[in-house]
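Researcher: We're teaching a course module on how sequence relates to structure. For the next exercise, students receive a sequence and then see the predicted structure as tokens, so they can try to spot secondary structure elements on their own. Here is the exercise chain.
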Amino acid sequence: MRRFTLLLAALFMGAVVRAQTTATFEVLPLAHADTFYTNYTASGTDVGFNNGLAHFPCVYDTSWGGVWSSGFAYSNMTDTITSGFTNQYSAKAGTGYAASEKYVVASGSVNRVHLQGTAMGHPVKGCYITNNTYAFNSMRDGDMFARKFHNGDWFKITAFGYYNGALKTDTTYIYLANFLFPDSTNNYIQRNWTWWDLQPLGKVDSIEFRLSSTDVGSWGMNTPAYFCMDDFTTYETFDTTTPPVMVPTTPVGSIKVYPIPTSNTLNVDLPDDAAVTMTISDMSGRVVTRIDRTSQHTSIDTAPLAPGMYVLHITGDGRKATMKFTKQ
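Model: And here is the predicted structure for the students to work with:
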């Protein structure tokens, strides 16, 4: 296996800075009001979307004429009244957080959000959570599959962190419905957006959300497996004094990136002709350039980029290198 050491010169002055990026989902396209994301182009595979510094997987299945199988779908649905499966894309709050237009709905008992770029390996600040209309009305009234909630019932989401591919022991949870109070007048089914602090999970590369309920049957949970999310906020930590360094077990070369800062061209010299993918993303995580190369020297045209700070990602042969650079 080829291995390399990343040696990058950077002309930055400063210290460690913590920034945050929020996935608000507002820039994601929808054709009109009261609609939602669907994609039947690749049945059974992830056709999800990126926003902020995170990837939200989504799987559709055409086997039964086209159904949402699992994952996240963004939506601007406002129907807080209609009960049942046909209203699975609505938030009970009627809008996104703070009356914003868009939000995401999660379908399925287990779903994972994957961090991207500079958010990877850092804590997630948190997100806003509320009930999906279908799930809320089912718990409030009962339906042909699930019972009406009563004293002793609950419906909650538990978050698990993954770091370097391993499941961490730290967890945190939030109730979407809680009927455990001694005074039953305090029982509630979550209707409005509420903040969920995810920092107790510590450093993560992805977060898995698992739904559970006291209403279960022989086929598993009876409560509809849905929840809604908005303003998923990640933390990034930038060391503006010391450039990133990757030291593998058996270094045989180095990657050189120059000039920094750059104007019209960013040069990348690899130690050999290994096949790599190079992507440049802006500080929101949006990929603005992608190049697949097998040559040792690559010149990337940065003239079209707006002045500012960007992140270069180089991946290949099981290794990954990341650095910041400035476009003048």
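Model: If you want an answer key for the exercise: The CA atoms of residues 111 and 209 lie 5 Å apart. The first strand starts at residue 5 and ends at 6.
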